[in-house]
Design brief:
By secondary structure, this protein is mostly helical. Among the domains are: 143 residues, no CATH class; 107 residues; 76 residues, no CATH class. Helix content is 66%, strand content 4%. It contains 29 helices and five strands. Strands 1-4-5 form a three-stranded mixed sheet. Helix 3 runs antiparallel to helix 4, helix 9 packs antiparallel against helix 10 and helix 20 packs parallel to helix 23. The longest helix has 23 residues. It is flat. It starts with 6 loop residues before the first helix and ends with a helix.
Length: 496
Amino acid sequence: MVLNLKEDIVKLLESIYTSDVIGANAAPSPTYEVFEEILKQDNAYIFFDLWDSNHPTLRAWAFHGITQLFKEKTVQDIADQLITSKIRIIIKELLQDDREIYTMLGCRLTHKKLNDVHIHSIYFLDNSVKIPPLFEYCNSEKTETNYMIGHILENYISKVEGIDSEYLLIKHAEQAKKYDFETKHLLIEGIKRYYYNFKKIENIIQLKSIFLEYLNEIYEHQIEKNTNISIDQRYIFDYKADIEANIIFLANTLDLDFIRETINFIINLQSRQSWVLRDIMEKFTKNQEYISLILEKLSTTSDLSLGSNILRGMIRTNFPNWKEYARNYVLTNKRIDLPTLREMLRNDAINKEIILTCLTHGITDQLMFISEFFDLYPEKFDEWEKFRLEFEKILRMEEPADLASRFGFFDRKKLCLLMVKKLMRNEYADYVLENLKFLKNGHLRVIAAESIAEIGRKEHLNQLEKLLETDIDIETFSKDGKNPILKAINNLNKKY
């Protein structure tokens, strides 16, 4: 019999472990409501008793209760050595308990290993409580280097400064099984996080050996990425790519003399790895082979992430003639992400041709940048005639009938309607009113109506009010229970 719990309650908890809500309506599950009533008793020994029952599902509830009761509480906050010791024992037992339990994830019933269910829950416990048992578990000769160890090292141990943390990261990186890329992915992420946190690695020689061994494994283990490979193989493909990218980043950051490995990395560079270029390019600005490869990649890629990261690397290292390369890339390729455009703006590399290209060929990021640009430099709207003419053309444009021609239409139309309002361009009120009459998209029609309400003259407001009498979609549009269009009209009517 579990302390202070009736047998029928224990039976209910034994049946299934659930999260706090189930279903699309986010309603608490009946079993979780029972758990919450137990939690209100604020009695750690009930959850210790549930744990000691050794029933895997009861243990799942027990550990959840412990993390809720002692969330972020230090050893000093708990102020009871017996309770602290018991929690640490439970953590060690949890890590070794791989029995399966039934659990409800959203609306889906599934079964998972107990330690998999709660490996993330350990996060809620304070370091002073959880780190000692985690260190002990990772340092035990009986502990196998696997996914569980990788998760602990990446998410917990890597955040603790000291030779013991680094020792455990290196130890398990050396012990990881060949081709176990899931675990090695976590271990390399842990080493990177440790370096990010504390800006030092003592065991450079061992680390270099590990890096070279991992890279050799990656090159040996070939998987063709195509539509016929399994989901597991796709994960492995991505793990390998991330391991390689992190190794190249760390090796260059730590000056491990990975020039040849880096060149090979650039030759076979994948989009998801391109973030590395932002941080390592400075070390290779005098290496002609590297520079030639980078310029070749930039001139041939149509990948948004790859092109943007190459440019950001160029900007950060003041790459020779980078402004020319950046402008040519945008004008030719026409796709670039928002952070790169912002960096170009900060470094005086944006001109009217780029802004015009973003308007005519841009996707979401580029169009967002146009809005940001004119927030900073509204005077450019009057100065740049070609941009203004294209802007007016989009304002007058009706919704295309064929699907192919509609690509980008809604985003561009939305941008122009919003800019009319933000820049208070009253001269476009007639255009916007016409949009309200011919547009079919409800969201765009609402934006047009709001713009008229903001910038329109009396005659425009009169026409808008007449449209509102018959336009149910706009009339019922509201934010926080209020109709912003009608409110704006009422405010402006007071002026006339």
